């Protein structure tokens, strides 16, 4: 985790974030000034940012929105007031409405500073608020926790994607009692990986878990709010009982992200929220699934089923059967 300190000062009306990043200043600068790279970490897990404008000039503006795992949205804008490449830049950060116009409350001046350190780069981000009320509002909204978790994603952004993930299989991170992040690099383009997740004929070829199973039924959602289901059965006398999952699509943002609810067919739960995102670099795609469980016991129970091993078998089959043809 690159964040070393997050400090709020009610007297100075500031929030100061300090991070120790294992990359040179020029590389960190690119991560903060390229909107496609910013989208990978500007927003905590489950709330990725999408930048729709990015005019990186003094007086220019960046506009972004974040969509949560339940379909909630929040939008904000930066106005660039100073740029000193590659040492730092300053923005006026403000919440905006659907029309892009700033709304009252929560506005701040943010100063980003990058300086060389023994390990790479020391990053300091200082937010200045005009009133106690605006500072308290963002603190109550979870600004400190959100900054820590968002910045925790920077390691993956600053490294070459293949260096970061290739050959490391399916990896599991326990983020807290109810959230798990699962990542796997697959050697193929994002468009094809998205299709593999969203075309029934392709799904039947790879999303099977361990050998000896087949997908017998699949119906996919085509828009947010639609229902979906799929079902597997053992082949021949290999053992096991047929089972399936069902749920609803919450977010569908092809070919980047999908969020769905999921529960075992024929039951009332427990229900999870599965947040799938795809990021491509140099012809490889990082598949990230953020799973939200209702409680710790459910999290541990589901992980103990061998779910991750089944996912790794499916990803290996995806590379072998679809991404090499």
TrEMBL record:
Residues 23-158, 189-321 form the Activator of Hsp90 ATPase homologue 1/2-like C-terminal domain. It holds the Pfam family AHSA1. InterPro entries: ASHA1/2-like_C, START-like_dom_sf. It comes from the Bacteria. SUPFAM superfamilies: Bet v1-like (SSF55961). CDD domains: SRPBCC_CalC_Aha1-like. Belongs to the AHA1 family. This is ATPase.
């Amino acid at each position: 985790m690159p964040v070393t300190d997050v400090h709020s000062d009610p007297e100075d009306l500031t929030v100061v974030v300090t991070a120790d990043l294992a990359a040179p200043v020029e590389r960190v600068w690119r991560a903060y000034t390229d909107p496609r790279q910013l989208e990978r970490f500007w927003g905590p897990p489950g709330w990725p940012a999408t930048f729709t404008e990015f005019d990186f000039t003094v007086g220019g503006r960046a506009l972004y929105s974040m969509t949560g795992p339940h379909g909630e949205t929040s939008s904000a804008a930066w106005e660039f007031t100073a740029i000193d490449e590659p040492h730092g830049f300053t923005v006026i950060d403000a919440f905006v409405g659907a029309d892009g116009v700033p709304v009252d409350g929560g506005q701040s001046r943010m100063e980003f500073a990058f300086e060389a350190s023994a390990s790479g780069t020391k990053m300091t981000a200082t937010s200045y608020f005009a009133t106690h009320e605006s500072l308290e509002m963002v603190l109550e909204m979870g600004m400190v926790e959100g900054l820590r978790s968002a910045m925790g994603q920077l390691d993956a952004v600053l490294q070459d994607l293949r260096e970061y993930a290739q050959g490391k299989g399916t990896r599991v991170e326990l983020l807290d009692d109810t959230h798990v992040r699962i990542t796997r690099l697959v050697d193929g383009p994002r468009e094809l990986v998205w299709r593999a997740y969203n075309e029934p004929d392709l799904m039947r070829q790879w999303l099977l878990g361990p050998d000896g199973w087949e997908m017998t039924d699949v119906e996919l959602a085509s828009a947010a709010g639609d229902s979906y289901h799929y079902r597997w059965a053992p082949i021949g006398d290999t053992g096991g009982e047929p089972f399936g999952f069902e749920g609803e699509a919450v977010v569908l943002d092809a070919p980047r992200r999908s969020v769905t609810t999921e529960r075992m067919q024929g039951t009332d739960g427990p229900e999870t929220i599965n947040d799938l995102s795809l990021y491509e670099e140099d012809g490889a795609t990082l598949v990230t699934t953020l799973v939200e469980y209702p409680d710790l016991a459910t999290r541990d129970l589901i992980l103990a089923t061998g779910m991750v091993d089944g996912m790794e078998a499916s990803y290996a089959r995806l590379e072998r059967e679809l991404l090499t043809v």
